[in-house]
Amino acid sequence: MTNATKHCRNFAPSPTCSLCCSLPETVLHTLSDCAEVRQLWSQSDCRQAIDLIYSAEAPSSVLSLVRAITRLRRMDWEVTIIWVPRDANRAADTMAKLADPSDYSLRVFHGAPLEVATFIELAKLRL
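Above: the chain's sequence. Below: its structure in token form.
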């Protein structure tokens, strides 16, 4: 969530970009105007999506998101797009599935939801 959005929802004192401190931090500002942003990291558990983004057909894809990502990759940025197997990210996948798609309000957890606690405990054992 950008500072501009947070500010509109009274979650941030100012809409100003926390990186350049000059303009409101909107998605457009962050992705194209902010002089401080020159890195883009994206992760996906969909191997087909990653392959499509890196394919020769990406610039003319019927999917607007793929075309937009292709344009971002052409900018003077360091762009890293990686595939993360779903099994390697079970806790995040489970958290995403807990969201109600019709509810856009902020949901704060003061502890790990029961559905996620198991994955956290297993990760601790692996360390």
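Residues 86-127 form one domain.
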